[in-house]
Amino acid sequence: TSNNEDTEKKESIRCLTTLSHFGFECLPYQLVTKSMEQGFSFNILCVGETGIGKSTLINTLFNTNLKDSRSSHFYPNVGLRIQTSDLQESNVQLKLTVVKTVGYGDQINKEGSYQPIIDYIDAQFEAYLQEELKIKRSFKYQDSRIHVCLYFISPTGHSLKSLDLLTMKSIDRKVNIIPLIAKADTVSKNDLQKFKSKIMSELISSGIQIYHFPTDDETVAQINSSMNAILPFAVVGSTDEVKVGKRVVRGRHYPWGVLQVENENHCDFVKLRDMLLRTNMEDLKEQTHIHHYECYRYRKLRKMGFTDVGPDNQPISFQEIYEAKRLQFYEQCHREEEELKKRFMQQVKDRETAFKDAEKELQDKFEHLKRIQQEEIMKLEEERRQLEEEIIEFCKTKAACETLQTQPCTNIKKD
Ligand code: GTP
């Protein structure tokens, strides 16, 4: 009987099933929808020697064909080629920016090889900081900060080159570095393992910090830590399709067989793609923002004189610093203005004295010339007077002569 009562009771209870999510449990869905509408962006920097396979790997990773001309080995300086493209996979849109070195490793000057890379990374941080400090900020600002640097190591099978160490050392605090052994199909499997360990020990002994896939999120901790252990990834790139049995795969065809790019026994391409795009893209972007950009911002604002605590270790607000800086700037302007005025007055005085001296000199010259001229005139006057006297004398003599000429004739007749 009690069993019957229980079933009756159960039948009388009205069961309601929820039709959909409600309340704030829907927040994640809102975020997903918003992100899908806005699309995603990702900026990759590829650093590696000319012809090492940078473009091919990017095209293989994103299943695309970014048009690019081959670089020459004779550029005088290292340059950067920037390509942006809008990609779509299912209904997810991705704005991909690939920045690629051009002429890297072809010059003797090593500092000249990595300086343009540092300058570019810093310039993107600076542009972001300037946007952040603007009064009227653009919320559609296209973030150009580099999220990851794929560093292509030459497949020498031996060790890292000094340029590799210098470059990685100078950018490791500015960008997330993922080291890759390029064209890994040119190194045998045994040599590859030794090469990987050699590279890692060289990086550690040089104090170079590469990006480590995060292990704090337990959903990806295991896979990420296993991937950290096999760094650097030995990759092979190819967009060529080759037939293997009945399947068509992307790979490289050799007389002795086919190297399948997406076969995990052949190379680490799939591991790289999973780590870079599927598992850790958001972490790479987050690390760029909260770690690398933050360091740049901190250094820059400190250099500009901003700080969070005053000399007395008391918190000091941005406004207070701004006011103090403004006052300091005003005082400095005032000082410089006074200095400028003083210098100007002195210059005017100097010029005036110089003008006066020149005027006096001219006056003296003029007086001197005037005196000479007067003396000259007087001399001429004297000469004229003498000439006139001579003329008068001459006229007198002439008249006397004429009188004399007429007189002798009458005298003769009288005799
Ligand atoms: P630049 O832009 O000229 O510096 O070259 P890049 O580094 O972008 O190299 P790119 O991708 O143009 O490849 C250069 C040559 O290497 C091409 O002939 C590719 O087919 C070949 N190549 C690319 N990736 C691989 C690889 O993984 N293995 C082998 N064996 N060859 C590759």
TrEMBL record:
One Pfam family from the record: Septin
GO molecular function: GTP binding
InterPro entries from the UniProt entry: G_SEPTIN_dom, P-loop_NTPase, Septin
Keywords from the UniProt entry: Coiled coil, Cytoplasm, Cytoskeleton, GTP-binding, Nucleotide-binding
Subcellular location: Cytoplasm, Cytoskeleton
Positions of the Septin-type G domain: 38-303
One GO term (biological process): spermatid development
Transmembrane domains' residue ranges: none
One Gene Ontology cellular component: cytoskeleton
Entry keyword Coiled coil: yes
Matches recorded under SUPFAM superfamilies: P-loop containing nucleoside triphosphate hydrolases
Coiled-coil boundaries: 355-397
Recorded superkingdom: Eukaryota
Subunit details: Septins polymerize into heterooligomeric protein complexes that form filaments.
Protein family membership: Belongs to the TRAFAC class TrmE-Era-EngA-EngB-Septin-like GTPase superfamily. Septin GTPase family.
Function: Filament-forming cytoskeletal GTPase.
Name by which UniProt lists this protein: Septin
Organism whose genome encodes this protein: Chinchilla lanigera (Long-tailed chinchilla)
Organism placement in taxonomy: Eukaryota, Metazoa, Chordata, Craniata, Vertebrata
Gene that specifies this protein: SEPTIN14
